[in-house]
Batch of 2 targets.
Target 1
Amino acid sequence: MPNIKSAIKRVKVTETKTLKNTIRKSALKTTVKKCKEAIAKGEGAAEAYKSTTKALDKAAAKNLLHKNTAARRKSRLAKALNAAK
């Protein structure tokens, strides 16, 4: 444990940010998984794709994901959606 006051604060801030990022990444993974399931079933796939795309864009904007990673995931989902039609 650090002794310097600013270092103590950095530890607390880092723990808080790590927790929030973990929660956000988990929610994003859940959204992508639900979208994949909707595409597989064919029910509500377009709406699921739209909401997932929005979530991926937000994650990229907040530096939760790299922009190319978000683009790749959106592309793969779009490809699966088009193949399912």
Target 2
Amino acid sequence: MGVANRRPTIAEPQRRALTPAEAGERLGLSSKELARLRDRGEGPAFVTFTQKSVRYLRSSVDDWDVQNTTWDDKLSA
């Protein structure tokens, strides 16, 4: 019997951690803007695996987006 070539299991897309580029795309920010927010202790919660490896949980990005969205009633009238 041969060994089957199996791909590693990938986390469900809605649970997968986002790269800074992916998080920035979701928020309408560049990766550099997210890095500035991290440096100031602001922005969505993130996890650092190494100095160059940062990831954001989708839920953290979505929560931060909701908390930092302002609505202008004058614009919706």
